[in-house]
Amino acid sequence: MSYFLVDFFVLSFNVKYSRWHVYLLLFFLFKKAPDCNSLNIVGKNMDFIYFFAIIFIFWSTVSALNYQCNEVDASTLQCNYIPKDIPNGFTRVRIIDFLKENKTFEFNSSYFMSKNWEDVTELQLQDHGHIAEIIFMEKCFIGLKSLRELHMNLPTQIQLDSDVFVGLDNLKFLDLSECVYLNLTELVKSFTGSNKLPSLETLKASNLNIYNRGISFDTQFAEALGDKQITSLDFSYTKITEINITAVLQYIQTLKNVNISHSTASNFIYGNKNELQKLKNINMFDMCHVPVSWLIPFTRYVNMAWNYSDFPKPWNYFFYPKIVNMTSRITGTGSIHTVNCTYIINVPFQWKSEELIIKKNNIKHLDLKMECSRHKIVTIKHINAAGNQMEFLHPSILGCTPNLEKLDLSNNKLHKMAKENHLLFQQLFQSLSRLISINLSFNRLQVIPENLFTENRDLELIDFSHNELEQVTFTLKHLYKLKVLNLQYNRIKILSSLSINNLNSIFNTLGNTTWTLDLGDNPISCSNCEAKQFIYWLTHTNSVSISTANLACTTLKNTRRKIDTRTLDDVNNICKRTIMIISTTVSVGFTFIIVLIVIMVIYKRRKRANKRIKRGELVNRLQEGQGQNEFVAFLSYSSEDKDFVDNFLIDDFNETLQHMTGIDRNLICTGDLYLRPGFRILDEISLCIERASAFIVVVSDSYNSSPYCHNELDIAYRLQKPIVLFIKGTVDESLMTPVMKSLFNSNVRVLWTFKNQDYTMMTSWQNVCSSLLDLIIQNENI
């Protein structure tokens, strides 16, 4: 039991400097209790002196065991307190959560004074959630003679002595991120003086003083850093009320990188314009997520024009640094939308930037024609305009950046431009002869124009991933330097022979030069014989490494399998089965067609025979001349059309019917010849119509205007006689009765045209009479 207690205390707490508490406690325990059975610390034989000594030592042991230092790696030590000394060999020390109570903690020059502390090159002071005040006294870091990085991430009240950093002559990186209560005025005082941080290169102060009023980068701030070696300033996520750009550039002449991203920079002070031109020495100016309203307005512009010379000159200085990051400057409901606008570069462009990052700015529609025939933006080499939901980009905009090498238009909606403005989309990159890399991923593109890249012979990388492409429709044979064509996550199932030829043209052009085609995560199919050519090409081309590409295809069972050399064998087997199925199907189909032809021949012969029989029966009834078969047709016409009927119609009509039926009598009934004088005219007309098998109407405007003619048509319609319309010349439909209009629009008509003082029928009497007889037979069978 005694050995167990010793092991428990020693192994459970890895604290080098508190084990003497454990040993002293055990000594007092076992002095009065030599074995487990006699161990009794509260019995009446227990001496009170030993009792209180044990309580004191136990409390001291627990307190000591709360302070720990653990080895993170061979060079890093992490502690939850500030040790007087550290083991030899550690150059990086993290002091994490060292504030144990909500009270004031004071750093003074007594800390960090051992020989091993002198070898530390990186120190991190970090605490979470403790409400306290930390006072950094003068020269409190003076023992850290080799320190190069100091991280003070302390979200609590901080007081800095003006000489707090004295002695840190080798410090290059100072991180004050999350010092949300640290006053900039105190910080500036601690920097002021040539003996303070003379080697400092990077100052990082994200979220500085965010719970108090905004900070101001004024002349005093710039002067305090002027005698340092500052190359990078990071004041992201801060409330900035004022930035004196002129003072910063005048005093901090070594400055290369500035980061004010996610800040609220409300006021920029410009002084001497000559000093502003020093912005061209800045390598990176990060203004992402900084509201844009102070720089340019944004709204919808329609039919407007601007000159470059009209814009305020200070606006240009923000594009002097080598890299300008303006990501998410326009957010929320704001957007840039121009329609039929013009921007004229009428004076030399003053931008010096090489890389422009304008991601996620809601630049949705740029129908903006830029006229830059005399002055172009020659310095821009990289443009990143991803994530703007862009639907349209006028080609002339890119035409003003002739030296562009890298263009990122991913995460936009350029499929709308490709569909609705196909020609302009095809011209989008034609002016970029030096383009090396193009990213058009996540644009929902379905078809790429054939000549999209004909002028971009230096292209090395084309990224069409995450689109909706099914084929490679664009020309590639001229891209001698192409290294990567990314077609991942598209809708490619089977590449056609045209697509394969386009891809092969690169190989034929490049010779032995290798290039990579990425087809990963496409719904490639290997479930039918049509895939044979594609799978064969895929497993034999040098542009796709089957062993490493990890490509998969959909099988006949609708499962996914990895594409390898065996995949081609499977597709060949499918082709063999397909051929057998086709052969069997063709044989069965051919037999079926032969049988069907025989049946059709027999059916048509019987139909013709049946037609002849019925035609003969009709002729017999007409020869008997009884009932409705006394006449073939009743001819209804207006009295004003009598000359037309007598001269062009009645004789030829009757003769043709006589010839076809073999009946030598009048087969056309006209009212004037067969009406009985003295009888009611309507009764007589009705009787004549009943004696005829069909009803013929000579349609003219005079017929449509006659009530008597209307009565004849209504009687025939009521008796369900077959009605055929003879249209005389041009007829006004508005004069027609509903019955006439219905027949006019639904049935085939016989047309008569008037030309050269003569009427001509647009068909033959043989066709008219044959159709009329068939119509009578059909009507009688109903």
How would you describe the overall organization of this protein?
The chain has 782 residues and is α/β, with parallel strands linked by helices. 32% of the residues lie in helices and 19% in strands. It contains 22 helices and 38 strands. It has an 18-stranded mixed beta sheet, with no helix packed on it. Helix 16 links the parallel strand 33 and strand 34. The longest helix has 60 residues. The N terminus is likely disordered.
What labels describe this entry?
single chain; 782 residues; alpha/beta; 18-stranded mixed sheet; six-stranded mixed sheet; 22 helices; 32% helix; disordered N terminus
What's the topology here?
Layout: H1 2-12, H2 19-32, H3 48-65, E1 69-73, E2 76-79, E3 92-96, E4 104-107, E5 122-126, E6 133-136, E7 149-153, E8 157-160, E9 173-175, H4 184-191, E10 202-204, E11 215-217, H5 219-226, E12 232-234, E13 240-244, H6 245-251, E14 257-259, E15 268-269, H7 273-276, E16 284-286, E17 300-302, E18 305-307, H8 314-317, E19 323-325, E20 336-344, E21 355-357, E22 363-371, E23 382-384, E24 392-393, H9 395-399, E25 406-408, H10 415-420, H11 422-426, E26 437-439, E27 461-463, E28 484-486, H12 497-510, E29 516-518, E30 524-525, H13 532-540, H14 546-549, E31 552-554, E32 560-562, H15 565-624, E33 631-636, H16 642-661, E34 668-670, H17 671-674, H18 681-691, E35 692-699, H19 701-704, H20 707-718, E36 723-728, H21 738-746, E37 750-755, E38 758-761, H22 765-781
Parallel strand pairs: 2-3, 3-5, 4-6, 5-7, 6-8, 7-9, 9-10, 10-12, 11-13, 12-14, 13-15, 14-16, 16-19, 17-20, 18-20, 19-21, 20-22, 21-23, 22-24, 23-25, 25-26, 26-27, 27-28, 28-29, 30-31, 33-34, 33-35, 35-36, 36-37
Antiparallel strand pairs: 1-2, 31-32, 37-38
Helix pairs in contact: 1-2, 2-3, 4-5, 5-6, 13-15, 16-22, 18-20
